[in-house]
Batch of 4 targets.
Target 1
Amino acid sequence: MAEENSIEHVKCLIIGSGPAGYTAAIYAARANLKPVLYTGMQMGGQLTTTTEVENFPGYPEGVTGPVMMEDMRKQAERFGTDIRFGVADEVDFTGSLHKVRIDGEKWIEADAVIIATGATAKYLGIPAEEKFKGVGVSACATCDGFFYRGKDVAVVGGGDTACEEATYLAGICNKVYLIVRKPYLRASKAMQEKVNKTPNIEVLFEHNTKDLFGTDMGLEGARLIYKMGTPEEKEHDIKIDGFFLAIGHTPNTEVFKKYIHTDGQGYILTEGRSSRTNVPGVFAAGDVMDPDYRQGITSAGAGCRAAIDAERYLTERC
Ligand code: FAD
């Protein structure tokens, strides 16, 4: 660890610059907590990777993700948030002052820390996913399903999330293929029944996605392999406009796991409806603690809660 006298002290440290981090910053700054916010590698968070956002209240005509996040940044700065570029790569939460290392060199000690580091969607790893991201490929049916209304789409995955996304899309789209690697669904019985009862979902068991194809205008289809690696192996194409990944997310919690309790998937556990973690003075907000909703607006709401919890914690300590 760095020399004690080189450690900067801050009242409220926010890690992450998505909707959760920026909203926490707006509230913390207005409560005079003088927040310092580190952006991480992806300034503005996941929404900077998408085009239209149509479901965030306050933008009746919609807004692009990057513009919305720039608006949030400006709002956080307007009230005095000190926004810095840097990645938290080590923490020491053993004392009453919480120590966080930035970019492998600078240590900061904070009275309160708000973790808002988000979660990263898992992709299959085929090059075409990158090519069609935003023009056919998405990891969020709730976010992007509306853009495919009346069209044919596919969902990849066999768990609860995949079944949920498939049934959600079935209500918007013409047809939904559910591409499942195994000969069965991993989802709960109730979710499986829901899928089976939905007439416009076709489950393609024992299928793997080999490739995606289309033009510069967008996705046109997927090449699938049936019973890959067996003598019955066969390739065929499906025509689709949208390809939705539902094979899980990785919460960005690796740095904190030594001290902060997480669930089996790595999401931070918080107490009841609060943002409090198991370490007093350390709070969590947004996708990093929310395996269920993972939306811009829910993350912003969680950021608000975390800043209020941090303010109350600091007031009680005085
Ligand atoms: P994130 O937005 O994931 O931000 C996490 C932040 O933490 C980033 O700034 C990152 O740089 C930072 N970070 C990570 N690790 C570190 C570290 N070690 N140190 C410092 N900083 C770190 N939601 C909607 O409501 N509407 C939509 O239309 C919509 N569309 C979407 C489209 C796509 C393609 C995707 C991927 C998601 C979409 N979402 C949408 C979901 C939405 O983006 C997320 O729910 C939301 O961004 C989560 O906010 P967050 O603040 O919790 O985390």
Target 2
Amino acid sequence: MSIIKDDYKESFWKIASEIEKEIEKIENAKNVKEKINEIKKKIETLKSGFLSKKGIIASLLNQLSKLDQQQRKELGKEINEFKQEIESFVKSITEKIEEKEKELKYYTNLDLSVNYTFKEKGHFHILTIVQEELMNVFAELGFEIIDGIEIEDEYHNFEALNIPSDHPARDMWDTFYLQNGILRTHTSNMQIRILEKRKPPIKAISIGKCYRRDNMDATHSFQFHQLEGFSIDEGISFLDLIRTLYKFVGKYFGVNSKVNFVPSYFPFTEPSAEMSVSCFACNQQNSQCSVCKGTGWIEILGCGMINPVVLRNVGIDYEKFSGFAFGMGIERIAMLKYKIPDIRMFFENYLEFNSLWG
Ligand code: PHE
């Protein structure tokens, strides 16, 4: 009797564990809905096979009447325990499959065929877009792109660039002072940082944020972005600088843009110049133009031949090597290219403005 019951136990748990495994792997089924129904049927069959009036437990209990009282008591207890095991297994497995069924209903109710377009999808800020465009143009011109740092020391931001502490140019580049340095006033610090590690020939650009103590107005901000570029090798001349910048303007603003250079002064370049491009708004036709103030030109960058003092400061033989450098304001370029009238618009976070370029 007990042996028969043990056989039943074994076969019950065999089927039970198969059902459990099937539930665990239900997600892999080709047709999950069908699989759920199949498992539910199996649970029903197991339940009625063991627990119904004509089921195994009932027939085992029936057979008890043939036994004497002592045996009846012992076996009766065992059979009842088995019955309880079956009942609690059936209960928990039924809950499990119902849970799965609920999940399935949730997922199958998702109608993925609906053609929904997000109204507020994310996109890059216009300054990021312009930076990427500029990087592409300079990459085409053979410049490598090097990351920069914003917290700088006075040596790399000023002294190494030939701006000693008593130099009047310091006023123009006054900045924010931190406990561990200053916020850089231009990306020219990267000329020094890069040349401390690398030796010529080198042709690179570096883009990033800069800070000055400027009050905010339509064309000034205490925080802005610059692109610094430089090229150093044997025999680099002013002509290489002009040629590079012409190519840049042609590629970025269009071949019909005119370019103008005027002499300027920077302690770290000698000779120095400022470059302007012809006004996109009036095409040099409107003496009342608000964008170029009627001059026909818009200044976009400072440039020049790297001062030999700077090369000496980073240990480069300035008799053998020469180089040019230029620095442009990204906001200025973006304002020109995309006709943005006020620099503050970049930073005010008006969604209407930001989404114009989405
Ligand atoms: N660093 C200069 C500025 O911020 C721009 C510049 C860069 C000029 C490189 C010459 C060469 O105004």
Target 3
Amino acid sequence: MAKRKILTDGDPALRKICKPVDKFNLRLHLLLRDMADTMYDADGVGLAAPQVGILRRVVVIDVGDGLVELVNPVILSASEETQTGREGCLSVPGRAGIVTRPMRVKVRAQDRNGAWFELEAEELFARAVCHELAHLDGQLYTDIMDRELTREELEAEAREQEAAAAEEKA
Ligand code: NI
């Protein structure tokens, strides 16, 4: 397991436009492995390469259905139907906001060996795809959120999580 340091809001690397990947080599495979390790260790559902200081178009996502690796991803189409809900970011610790995203997106990307594929994502997966791809263009959810969650809302969330964890143990 090789964790990398997650950069936080204010670091200039998070505001850069990332370059496409052109070499599908061991270095990329190690980056993908480290990004997945880092994401799982931080209990995140997605991570983009600039969050670990690598300005390349690479993201990893796992919303509970297994690891998805996207290299040079592009959104081909997005549904007019939207979803409005809670969103956080490993680079914006201790905060969360309400963000409106498309309900469904169609994405084209390359796998770790350079083969192109397409996938359709909906609900939380679509939200994660939009959030992570925005990182590749230097955008954070805080730039587009409808509103930020208040301290009271965050504390209520933390209490709910503690109660759920206690119930699991009981
Ligand atoms: Ni993020």
Target 4
Amino acid sequence: MTNDLSKLAIHTITNKPWSTEECIDHYSRAGVGGITFWRYSFEGRSPATVGRQAREAGLEIVSVARGGFFPATTAAGLQRAIDENRKAIDETAEVGAPSLVLVCGAIPGQALRESRQQIQDGIAELLPYAAERKVILAIEPLHPMYANDRSAVNTMAQASDICEALNSHPNIGIALDVYHTWWDSELEREITRAGAFGNLSGYHICDWKTPTSDLLNDRGLMGEGCINVREISDWIDDSGFRGHHEVEIFSNHYWSMDQGDYLKSILAAYRKLTH
Ligand code: ZN
């Protein structure tokens, strides 16, 4: 599959300086197979129209990022999160994406187990609505450096525990991001587990640069850092996952570049990874 880009997808935030329309146009012309929309990409637009534009350009709509942020310290806060997630599910259904990525949330000072329970309860409450709208709620485990304030779900095992506690409902899934999970000694086994239960629904790729200037906005292109992306991709394939490999890179460095040149670098890095 040396030059086959049909299983490559790109997150719109990867090319943040481009408008929604520019992302669709450039990815389509480059032969990229799929696109994942960040919700800001819908600002001032109708998700249904954006979805139609992407499909007409030959792109498969892979996912929407992102919902989640379930934990709260008050009943009103928990309810606000549910309401906001219903909106995110609506946008996902309207654009025509099969899944919504969840950054699950955490509250500084609140016990992680309590946050995890709130996350599980929140997802459970949303599942009937997600099923009605044909949207998979994809838990994305975040690196433990975010456990305090962005996600109490930090490993594939914790994500699978939640999925399995909810009977691996057809509308629940896991989005695995190599940036967040590559360090985990249980990763291969947990990918196999998630695949066996039918819970693996998304795969995000990038790299971890050393040294890194910023742990959020200095992600690298695949091959530029220390992550064994190729090996993880093999595990993903072996698990039965047949979805897109989604390039999701937050990078002040790359955002400051000419985005056309940067897209060429993304394609080259992907080809090198898959040849
Ligand atoms: Zn991700």
